[in-house]
Amino acid sequence: MIEVRQLTKSYGPTIAVNNVSFDAHAGEVLGFLGPNGAGKTTTMRILTCYLAADAGSAAVAGYDVFEESVEVRKSIGYLPESAPLYTDMGVIEYLNFMTQVRGIPKSQRKERTRAVIELCGLEDVIQKDIGELSKGYRQRVGLAQSLIHDPPIMILDEPTSGLDPSQIIEIRNLIKDIGQEKLVLFSTHILPEVSATCSRILIINDGKIVANGTPEELAGQAKGEEIVHIAIRGPQAEIETKLDALEFVSQWAHVETDDGIDGYRVTATQGSHAAEALFHVVVDNRWSLTELRQESVDLEDVFLNLTVRE
Ligand code: ADP
Domain limits of the chain? Predict the structure, then answer.
């Protein structure tokens, strides 16, 4: 649904977006993660036709962002970092107004307004002026207006910036809900944001995509290894000889488990599907397995490794 190829954009001597390529598909919540100044906003502004690139191409919902901007804009809901809201308008008045701006047929306007009020949890504030609302509610109104024409693709620039922790959780949950039906691409400079919300992460730094994958894949790639915790009831010496002999196991350490069963922390090569392979070893040897889990890897290390400036 989004296809970006070798996109490049400079502001004078600053290369804001440098040869960026990626794809995004329906059903994904894609996190665009990078430190401030990495090029997230610039990329999003190009995808939403607010800015022209110097080179490269981008297609959104099959339409070229340079040649078919009207079609692109119909296909996306865009929430810029500081959402432009009319603070002296009432919530319902504003949403009604946006149905007209977006060219929604008169017969559908009421229904679309009702639908976004429900989706964004605005029922309690519909009688208020936007200016009276908390930042969290304002952001929900911003989301509601970007959803009002029911676009298949949502592009959200730092949607939780400036919100307090409980508002952040509300907006994250809302993004997840929206992501059930639409492709969502949202940017953030905060790592927990993407691990909590996304099915895939693009890490951008200094205008370049430096990583692209699921949270698990990225963590694995950076470490270059898989770590599995396993506890086996069986003959200890035999188990340990077997662990030594397994090609995909680079090292292992015996760990005490609470119930006295032999536990091991096994380090294996990346991509070896070590947990599954170890399961089969245990079954083939007729030992019994009392614990098997893959150690969760620290995405924070990955992010810092990839984005720290030289
Ligand atoms: P992010 O959204 O990741 O914080 P931006 O896309 O806003 O990054 O910025 C990328 C780079 O481009 C930064 O170095 C920023 O200073 C520069 N930049 C962004 N907008 C402009 C502009 N209008 N004029 C000049 N430089 C800009």
Answer: 2-213, 224-294
